[in-house]
Amino acid sequence: MTPAAANPKTPDHADPKTPAAAVPGPDGSSGDVARLTPSAAVTAAHAAQALRSCFGLTGRLDRLPGEADDNFALRTADGRRYVVKFAHLRADPEVVSVQVRILKHLESVAAGLPVPRVVPAVDRRSWTVVPAGPLRGRVVHVLSYLDGQLLRSVTTSAALRRALGESLAALGQALRTFDDPLVHRPLLWDIGQLPQVRPLLAELPSTAGTARLDEQLSRFTAEVAPRLAAQRHQLVHNDFSPDNVLISADARRVAGVIDFGDVTVTALVNDVAIAAAYQLSGDDLIGPALDLISGYHATTPLTADELNLLPELIGARILARIVISEWRATRFPENRTYILRNTPRAWEHLDRLQGIRADEITERIHRACLPEAEHA
Fold first, then answer.
1. Which terminus of the chain, N or C, has less C-beta within 10 A?
2. Which pLDDT tens digit goes with each residue over 61-97?
3. Is 211 exposed, middle or buried (0-12, 13-18, 19+ CB in 10 A)?
4. Phi then psi dihedrals of residue 211, to 5 deg
């Protein structure tokens, strides 16, 4: 993707609601880097013991994937299903608390949204700390289980991709009315804080590929970040990926949105860029992403400046995926294959995206968002 001309309306200061930059923790690493560092795994036997004492629940536990937390699917003897989440050892309980409060907020203001419901502990709290036993001190909460097939496993149609955009916009509208100091936080996965991945990039072996990433990151910091800071900010999901979206059996609608672990206040358009980045595919690389963008725009109209930023922001998300994954793989070589399972495709998408003129992508985005194009 060749560079687009810089917006002449470059601000000389950031929006006061822009999340703060990552700051070092007591061990010298950022809190978010610590979150990406594995903690001791929770065994099913220990999880069952904690569940019984904290939530009065018993049944079969099956491990679910997760970047930082230990997650399990629970099926009780009477057929009820839940998702159980044990937070990272270093997790701040208040961060878990705010994620749970966000889900309760969504239930209150937009009950029709397909998001998990919070299951109270025996003491009626929305989350709790394991009081005794092998998991003493671990923060745990339980959510309802949502039926559906992961978006990753679904062959999407243009109509479904538009529905994805519409669902993301509806979720964003409901999140707009929630705020808390804890959702203004350091977060490596926030495109608005992309310059914070530079120390991670510096730890990677020096190659032609990392040199390209460094060049892209420098250009983002100098040209894109000031424009992005001037856009509207609010709380967003921040990870509308194929692993966090459930689709109905007939592949026509969104049946669930899960994993609110990366929620943050950032530029609203970042949420669209993240979702669009995961729709890049096929001979016409950006074509499927345009369907999602048009569906979002039809529900929550994007400004011209936001639409103009999307090509750079989509590329920024891919850059973050590559850098963070490569960094984790060097730190944890025993899990390298799993960590890098999606990285070759990310590199392919970045190569192809950078081969398309930015103004061409921008023109197609604007055209897709014209009223007559929304259901063409």
1. C
2. 999 987 678 999 999 999 999 999 999 888 889 989 9
3. exposed
4. -65, -40
